[in-house]
Structure formats: structure tokens, C-alpha cells
Amino acid sequence: MTETVIRLQLNQQQLELMDRTIARGVAPDRIALVRLAISEYAAARMAETSAKRNDLEPVR
Amino acid sequence: MSGRHVLFEHVLEPGTGKAIELLKGQILRIEQIEGGQCADFNCFNLHDYKEFMHCGRTRTVHGFHPTKGTFMWSAPPRERAMLYILEDTVGRNDVLFPRCSAYVYEASYGFAVHTNCHDIQAEAQREYGLTPDDVHDSFNLFMCTGVDEDGHAYMTRQTTKAGDHVDLLALMDVLAVPNVCGADVMRTSNFSLKPLKLTVFAATTADLAQVPKTPLLSSQRTPKDFRNPTIKADRPLRRDPAYTPEFPNTPIRVTELPVALSADEMAMFRSVKRTDIYGEDDAAALRDLLFSWWEERFLHAHAGAPSIESK
């Protein structure tokens, strides 16, 4: 399976926020948290796009 | 309102203000007598004037037109709720504009002397030893304002009537300083100056029960937490040769976190990444996505504004 590696640059405060989020049980580790962010953020944008598209449909 | 005991009454005549010791659990009512009058308002911690109501913090939390059910906050690093707006019969106040000043009336209208909120505030608070430099931006009651499309704040006329009022409940002992806005050549108070009525009540149990709890956080610091708790008593600024910087969390250290993404994950990332800002810098775009997602999922306040939910 082809994978692409992105090298995030994060400072200690950003890492602390990630770690506190992980400690709440949101994700098991930092990498998983980033993956969760991508999937949920993309899903939210897709939902927004769908809603906008529907808004343009004529009222029947 | 029923059952409140009146402690003090005063009529603010046009061109004047009044410094009032408003103790915790007391309510200051600022009331229209004729209608159509803006009141500027400021307050200080009665026991430490360096803690004062801060319009910037207040508008960040509550927006440009705070009304019933919101708080007046003190400036960082104190950031405490000083007053609670218990009642507001109009619902249109302003924290965009600073207090008007003599400069405005001289520069724009040619007045050598003119009633203005800065000087009225200064004269009122002089009763408590404060100087004109101690006047801070005011919370402008009954003032109708907005923001133009070009980003400028504007003011317009108001429609308040006799009897309209705002009730401010003190959550700490404060020196409250309301004044009749001095602007009679602007729309602020419909081009005339009118008196306002001030009444101080003792809050009832029912009044106190309306106040939402606010957080108590370690970041709400007082002089006992300061590296330099002493108020500077002279005017010139001189370098302290013994000073060594102690900025928190410094140095800022950047760590690399490699994240291996599958083809599907990359496709999702590409569909939402902000190439308009970051171009081909995928690392910066992914960092943006990560914290934008965090804001959406976990932030309870507007971005950049402190949450005032109490745990």
C-alpha cells in the first residue's frame, strides 16, 4: 500500500494539547489523532458542501 | 425587582458623572429620565484600582453589544467577572467605541472646551485620587453602533424612552463611574444632553440566583502572583539592570512528527487542505487542519475568546 509521509512541525505547546486530547480518550496516540482529524475534518467539509448544493436545488 | 431595598439615588446632570462605591451584591441601575441618552460607564476594583473593567476582554467574550445575561470583565491577567448585567430593557450597548475625548471635539468640531466622556470620567474619579491617565475605555450604555463593510465603527441614533434602564450587579466591590455622555453634536444621544437617574439597590436572593457561575482559573492572577507586584510610583521609565527575562514556555522548541498517510487519507487531506494559504507546504497545511479540527470539536467559545463556562 502506498503511503505518503508528511513531517508535521509542532512545538511543545501544540504537542501538549495533542497529548491532553489523547489523555481524554479521543485517540490512542499522536498519529492516530492526526488521522482522526483528517477524516472528521474532511467529512465535515463534505457535509457542508452537500448542504450548500441542496440549498441551490429548486423548491418543489 | 420587588423587595429590593434602595440604598442611594442620584440624578446625573448633563455634563457630569459620579463615582459610586458599589459593593458586592449591590445593583446599580442607570435609567433614562427623558430617553435618548447614552451613558458611559467604567469601573475599578475598589480595593485595587489596577484591576479595571476592560472593554477588549468584554467584547471578545460577549460581542460588540453586550446586554442582559453578560458580564463586564477585568483586564488580563485578572480576567474576573466584575459586574453582571442583570437587566437591560433596551438591549443595545456598545463596546466598540472608546470614550469620546476633548481631542475629538477640538479636531473635528473646533471646540476649545466641550463636554466629553474622558474628561467627565476623569473629574468624577478624581474624588478617589485617580488621574486622567487612569480613565479606561468605557462600556457605552444605550449607544447604537455597528461596523461598516469597510471595517469602520459607526454610531447612530437611539430609541430609548423614559424608564428604560440597565441594572448592573456587582460581583466584587467596585468603584463604578457612570457619566452622561458629552456628545451633543453627534448622533450618540440624538443631538442633545439629558439627565440620567442612578439608583443603588441591595440585590435580593432572587437577583443573586440569576448570576451564572464563571470559572475560577489559576491564570486569573493577582499581584501576589506577579514577579513585580509593586506599582510604579514615578513617571520616567528606566531599565532595571538586574532584569533577566522569564517568558513562559521558552524557548519554543519545534519537534518533527512524521505521519504516514494512506492513499485514502491523502485523498481526504488533498480535498480540504488550504493550498490558497500554504501552497505545496503539506506539513503546514496538515498542522492547520489538525488545530482547525480541534477548535471545531472541542472549543466552547469563539476562536480566540475565553470560555466562560463553569465546570
Word description of this protein:
- The complex is a heterodimer of chains A (60) and B (311).
- With 60 residues, chain A is α+β, with helices and mostly antiparallel strands.
- Helices cover 65% and strands 15% of the residues of chain A.
- Chain A has a domain at 29-60.
- Chain A has helices at residues 12-23, 30-56, and one strand spanning 3-11.
- The radius of gyration of chain A is 17 Å and the shape is extended.
- The N and C termini of chain A lie far apart (46 Å).
- Chain B is 20% helix and 26% strand.
- The longest helix of chain B is centred in the last third of the chain and has 17 residues, at 282-298.
- Chains A and B meet through strand 1, helix 1 and helix 2 of A and strand 14, helix 5 and helix 7 of B.
SSE blueprint:
The complex is a heterodimer of chains A (60) and B (311).
Chain A: E1 3-11, H1 12-23, H2 30-56
Chain B: E1 5-12, E2 20-22, E3 26-32, E4 39-45, E5 48-52, H1 55-62, E6 71-73, E7 81-88, H2 102-109, H3 117-125, E8 139-141, E9 144-147, E10 153-156, E11 165-170, E12 174-180, E13 196-202, H4 205-209, E14 254-262, H5 263-272, H6 275-278, H7 282-298
Antiparallel strand pairs in B: 1-13, 2-12, 3-11, 3-13, 4-5, 4-8, 4-12, 6-7, 7-11, 9-10
Brief characterization of the structure:
The complex is a heterodimer of chains A (60) and B (311). By secondary structure, chain A is an alpha+beta fold.
Mean pLDDT of chain A: 89
Rounded to the nearest angstrom, the radius of gyration of chain B is 23 Å
What is the distance, rounded to the nearest whole angstrom, between the alpha carbons of the first and last residues of chain A? Answer: 46 Å
Terminal residue distance of chain B: 29 Å
Extended strand count of chain A? 1
Please tally the helical runs of chain B, counting DSSP H or I stretches of 4 or more residues: 7
How much of the polypeptide of chain A forms β-strand, as a percent range? 15-25%
Secondary structure category of chain A: alpha+beta
- Alpha-carbon Rg of chain A, integer: 17 Å
Quick one: biggest sheet of chain B?
Answer: 6 strands, antiparallel
Which parts of chain B are unreliable, with pLDDT below 50 for 5 consecutive residues or more?
none
Oligomerization category of the chains in this entry = heterodimer
Number of helices of chain A: 2
- Sequence of secondary-structure elements of chain B: EEEEEHEEHHEEEEEEHEHHH
Largest interface comes to: A-B, 32 and 33 residues
Helical fraction of chain B: 10-25%
Strand content of the residues of chain B, in percent? 25-35%
